[in-house]
Amino acid sequence: MKELNQFISTGNNSQPTSTDTKPTDTDSTSLDYSSQNSSAASVVDPSTPMTPEKPETFLTIQNVVSTVKLGCHLDLRAIASKAWNVKYDPKSFQALIMMIRKPRATALMYKTGNMVCTGTRSEESSYIAARRFARILQKLGHPVRFLNFKIQTMVGSCKIFPVNLEKLALTHRMHCSYEPELFPALFYKVMPGVSVTVFASGRASVNGGRTQADIYKAFDIIYPILCCFRKPEH
């Protein structure tokens, strides 16, 4: 479970050592996603200091995590022996790990037929990657189906300006969790299920949103608050 949480929070930056496994699926399936990039209008006090740049210009989606049910049990040992770019060590982790390059993604496949797809940077890329993983398993002889595809969480990150975390934690103690002796970042609960992790250097990440709109909305809320605790630049 620890390894799975690491995949979800950071994505997987490792690259496969060779081209995709035997199938090179060019599945033309696409999703008609509604536009979810529009940011909700943030409520900003007139006295709140702002920077010339708009927040949307430097916030990027770093990882999208999705799940899908494949509708059959998987023989993970057989898959590991036939497919490329896989890792399977049942003694340390119960899932088989498979990677592809286009789009760059990593799948965690369980013998029950559940699959977690992580590492992509958009909802559409996550869908395409999940479809290609399923197609690979089909070509390896598994009667898989593509059921209940769902985006579970997204992670967006940016680099803004140095922040005084001590003052922020004192002023917004009802929404913050900050224990520098255990972890150097502050956790701020912005919306139900969505939090922002802020480092003193200005590195911030938005976690828990299920759509890009959730990520941008949370950042629109936290950005004017962070501006109030901006450290002076030397």
From TrEMBL:
Residues 1-15 have a biased composition (Polar residues). GO terms for cellular component: nucleus. Residues 1-53 are annotated as: Disordered. GO terms for molecular function: DNA binding. The keyword Repressor does not apply. Gene3D superfamilies: TATA-Binding Protein. One of its GO terms (biological process) is DNA-templated transcription initiation. The keyword Transcription regulation applies. It comes from the Eukaryota. Residues 16-35 have a biased composition (Low complexity). Its main location: nucleus. Keywords: DNA-binding, Nucleus, Transcription, Transcription regulation. It is found in: Nucleus. Belongs to the TBP family. This is TATA-box-binding protein-like. It comes from Scomber scombrus (Atlantic mackerel). The lineage of its organism: Eukaryota, Metazoa, Chordata, Craniata, Vertebrata.
